[in-house]
């Protein structure tokens, strides 16, 4: 039987939006965003609602516990991406993050934190959101890709990743920061690290070509190779198709990698085979969500906390089950 891994959480938080739309307030520095002129705003919102619903069901069917929350607000178009405003960590720690765009700061919700305290063993909540007043930002596990095994935080510099906040996080949570500059094929800074990099237990998906400095690129490649992981190098085109925006999770029958159908379609057969040596691939259809410039990894806030006894015994509670079965 496959051993459990601290890299692969067994539970996630998802947000199902009622009024999803690509956010014009975040488009300036997010080149991954796109428009859909063929559908009305209402049609896009309805499609996004359905994509989250089906993604949650597929994850649950694979044995991943999904805590699904509703978002009724029209003021939070990016709420479907909760991994940016909070993260959880072994030992019972939760972090809240400072967000670059004022429109995204409204996404933080106390009911999510209270659920975590009720269902999991939470010792403390460290709130960095006050750094917003100083123009200092660190958008959670979008800004950072965390190696929970080696205790390394990889981070590409951007408007949304401030090194002062990163150092503070790494000091509190015992990670080593590894910072670099990353750009897309048009030499535009990449807004979030998790679109170019995914670290699993036995593999790493990474767009090495995005790392501007050749010496730094070689250092990071060597650092990752030293962990014994299989390095799967992604092209600029594959990064543009969200092939790096994936997450390893613990399913019922072993570890799975959740990624979008578009991302899976962008991978070469040899890359798929390399992944399938240690994980099962779980593609999710989130084409509408991807209009907002993020994909499956952004949609899933992994829970690296010890569950209380009731959750271990029974899985999702009736309220959560009802949400998952809703149309």
* CATH class label: Alpha Beta
Radius of gyration: 18 Å
Q: How many strand segments?
A: 15
Unreliable segments of 5+ consecutive residues: 313-327
The biggest beta sheet is recorded as: 3 strands, mixed
Class inferred from helices and paired strands = alpha/beta
According to CATH, the fold-level topology is: L-arginine/glycine Amidinotransferase, Chain A
Query: Strand order within the widest sheet?
Result: 2-1-15
Helical percentage: 25-40%
Number of helical regions: 11
CATH architecture: 5-stranded Propeller
Distance between the termini: 35 Å
Shape: globular
CATH homologous superfamily designation: L-arginine/glycine Amidinotransferase, Chain A
Oligomer: single chain
Keywords:
3-stranded mixed β-sheet, L-arginine/glycine Amidinotransferase, Chain A, Amidinotransferase, disordered C terminus, alpha/beta, 327 residues, Amdntrnsf_FN0238, 11 helices
């Amino acid at each position: 039987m496959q051993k459990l891994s601290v890299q692969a959480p067994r539970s996630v938080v998802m947000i199902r939006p009622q009024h999803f739309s690509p956010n014009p307030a975040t488009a300036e520095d997010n080149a991954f965003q796109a428009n859909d002129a063929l559908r009305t705003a209402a049609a896009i919102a309805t499609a996004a609602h359905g994509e989250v619903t089906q993604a949650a069901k597929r994850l649950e069917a694979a044995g991943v516990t999904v805590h699904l929350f509703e978002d009724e607000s029209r003021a939070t178009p990016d709420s479907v991406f909760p991994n940016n405003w909070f993260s959880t960590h072994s030992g019972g720690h939760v972090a809240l993050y400072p967000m670059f765009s004022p429109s995204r700061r409204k996404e933080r919700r106390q009911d999510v934190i209270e659920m975590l305290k009720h269902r999991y063993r939470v010792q403390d909540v460290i709130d960095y959101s006050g750094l917003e007043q100083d123009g200092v930002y660190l958008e959670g596990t979008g800004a950072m890709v965390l190696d929970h095994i080696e205790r390394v935080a990889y981070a590409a510099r951007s408007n949304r990743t401030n090194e002062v906040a990163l150092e503070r996080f790494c000091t509190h949570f015992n990670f080593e920061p590894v910072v670099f500059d990353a750009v897309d094929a048009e030499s535009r800074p990449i807004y979030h690290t998790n679109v170019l990099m995914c670290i699993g237990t036995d593999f790493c998906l990474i767009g090495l070509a995005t790392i501007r400095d050749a010496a730094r690129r070689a250092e990071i490649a060597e650092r990752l190779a030293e962990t014994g992981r299989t390095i799967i190098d992604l092209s600029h085109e594959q990064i543009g198709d969200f092939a790096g925006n994936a997450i390893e999770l613990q399913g019922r029958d072993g570890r799975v990698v959740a990624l979008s159908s578009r991302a899976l379609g962008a991978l070469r057969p040899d890359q798929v085979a390399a992944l399938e040596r240690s994980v099962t691939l779980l593609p999710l259809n989130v084409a509408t969500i991807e209009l907002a410039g993020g994909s499956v990894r952004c949609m899933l806030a992994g829970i690296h906390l010890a569950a209380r006894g009731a959750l271990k015994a029974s899985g999702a509670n009736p309220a959560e089950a009802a949400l998952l079965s809703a149309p």
